[in-house]
Write a structure and sequence with these properties.
Layout lengths: L37 E7 L11 H12 L12 H8 L9 H12 L6 E9 L6 H6 L21 H11 L3 H10 L2 H4 L2 E13 L2 E2 L4 E8 L4 E9 L13 E12 H4 L4 E6 L6 E2 L2 E4 L6 E9 L2 E9 L5 E10 L10 E4 L5 E4 L4 E5 L3 E7 L6 E7 L4 E5 L11 E2 L1
């Protein structure tokens, strides 16, 4: 199977944390809410300004785009979700005057606009396909000979029932989707389905990154004419969410007009592009204060955030942290010691330490493994007192930011 990776998706989750106990001003506190049971992305042909309808404003936006000088080399650049998805209205892989012809037709007959969507629902039970985990790939057409896998595209209610019974085990849930995708739906659309498992919290992290795609041969090779990304939308740092283990049913609703002429269509798993996480929490010796540190690394970049957890389950964002070469210095392993002032210190001696002083908490961590140390000093009510960034660009070594 030839694999074409065109973009990363987003859908992120992460680690859960225990409790802490420091009151603070409510205006400064972040409270975590449970994520919705369904989410996704939809698109309407001609809706260039993404307001869910086709109007003269969309034609103005397309005209403005066409009047700008565009580098032809950008045709192959991964801008599908932002530009090609919006302006390539005849789905030939290019944005040109022919798309304006389609736009004029859509203004006269907006009901003729093609619609498509990628939806993810939480489900109670399901079966994970073997090629999900073994090949990091979900239901996606064979790009070598242009054919589809048998279960990639669902074109009628009979095929839908068969596929649902392969993926789900709860008959009530199966019936709900049979009712949703009836004969009327399949008159204009095809469907691609798959189940994914998502686990996060307490050190377990699996990102759901997936996309519904339609590829066509434009003469310049295979081009994405539709890419719909679907992932969790988190309003706060994903490292603050509680532990969850969830099964998800992904549904790509694709116009028959496009799938009939496509080289491949379906759902592609992008979770192999996920970043690494190592979220940690540390409790003071008296058990009254908890610090939560979220850490994420992708390729050679890494970053994190320091939070103070409040007694009512909220979080105060105190400081960001930056490291290099993918370093995530805060670990679960450590031991207690005592410094010259009698303060308790917890750390591993090589990449981080946390000093629980009488009036403040001092966090020290390396900027890269084996590198210099950065120091963050915070108050017990969640205020950043100072931060020392040795050798950080724009600051002199050892400069303190207050």
């Amino acid at each position: 199977m030839k694999k074409i990776i065109t973009a990363a998706a987003a859908a992120l989750t992460a680690a859960a944390l225990t409790c802490s106990l420091m009151p603070a001003n409510a205006a400064d506190v972040i409270y975590i809410e449970e994520n919705p049971d369904t989410w996704g992305y939809s698109a309407v042909q001609g809706d260039t300004n993404l307001d869910s309808e086709v109007t003269i404003a969309d034609a103005v936006a397309l005209q403005g785009y066409l009047m700008k000088e565009r580098n032809p080399e950008r045709r192959a650049v991964l801008t599908y979700a932002n530009e090609l998805m919006r302006y390539d209205l005849n789905y030939d892989g290019f944005i040109d005057a022919f798309d304006m012809v389609v736009m004029r037709k859509l203004l006269v007959e907006p009901e003729s606009a093609l619609t498509m969507s990628f939806t993810v629902d939480k489900v109670s039970s399901g079966v994970i396909s073997s090629y999900n985990s073994d090949e990091n790939e979900m239901s996606f057409g064979n790009l070598i000979d242009g054919s589809y896998r048998e279960d990639t595209i669902i074109s009628d209610t009979s095929a839908l029932s068969s596929r649902l019974h392969e993926l789900l085990t709860d008959e009530d849930e199966i019936q709900r989707y049979i009712d949703k995708y009836d004969d009327g739906f399949f008159e204009t659309h095809d469907l691609s389905l798959d189940v994914a498992a998502q686990s996060c919290g307490e050190g377990v992290f699996t990102r759901l990154g997936s996309a519904a795609r339609i590829l066509k041969n434009t003469g310049d090779g295979l081009v994405n004419v539709i890419v719909l990304f679907s992932g969790h939308t988190y309003t706060e740092d994903i490292g603050l969410y509680p532990k969850t283990e969830t099964l998800l049913l992904m549904q790509a609703e694709l116009p028959k007009q496009l799938t009939d002429s496509a080289q491949a269509a379906g759902i592609l798993d992008l979770s192999f592009l996920e970043s690494d996480r190592n979220d940690q929490s540390y409790t003071s010796p008296d058990g009254n204060t908890e610090i939560v540190i979220t850490q994420e690394a992708f390729l050679f970049n890494s970053s994190g955030t320091v939070y103070l957890k409040t007694e009512d389950g909220g979080y105060i964002r105190v400081s960001d942290i930056w490291t290099d070469d993918g370093a995530m210095p805060f670990e679960s392993e450590g031991e207690w010691t005592e410094n010259d002032d009698g303060a308790k210190v917890y750390g591993n001696g090589s990449s981080y330490s946390i000093t629980w002083g009488e009036d403040s908490i001092t966090l020290r961590h390396v900027t890269e493994y084996g590198g210099e140390w950065q120091e963050i000093n915070i108050s017990y009510d969640g205020r950043l007192l100072s931060r020392t960034i040795p050798g950080f660009p724009g600051f002199d070594s050892g400069n303190v930011i207050s």
